[in-house]
Amino acid sequence: MKIKVKTDEMMRMIKDTLEGGQKAIFTVTGRSMEPFFKDNLTVVTLVKKASYQVNDVVLFWHQGSYKLHRIIKMSDELAVCKGDHLLKSEIVEIDDIFGYVESFETKGKIVQVMSKSYLTKVFLWRLFKPILIRLRRML
Question: Which CATH code of 2.10.109.10, 3.40.190.10, 2.40.70.10, 3.40.50.2300 fits the domain covering 7-138?
Fold first, then answer.
């Protein structure tokens, strides 16, 4: 059964669920994480982690909105995050990260984010992304 709720209400429920040690599952909206997450098609499973690392896709609060983007750089207190389909990044305090994507499903295909094939695709996408995004925008 699917229900629609306002973003702020949903995020409060997700934060409470993660803080309670449970998994949170929701459908992604938006195109910022293409090509890996598809708008209104990809369902992500989030969990709370003791610490985060580069390449984790995390849910966080930034400048008045919630975002689900990839960590591309880290320090002890800050993470630099960016949507896979974006060129602009955000600097986020680690305390503003609520959880990370453990797995996702699109059109019946489940992907574990620690699998070698997924991590290889992420590496290649990040390597060639600036060129590919600019080419896609030109077409």
Answer: 2.10.109.10
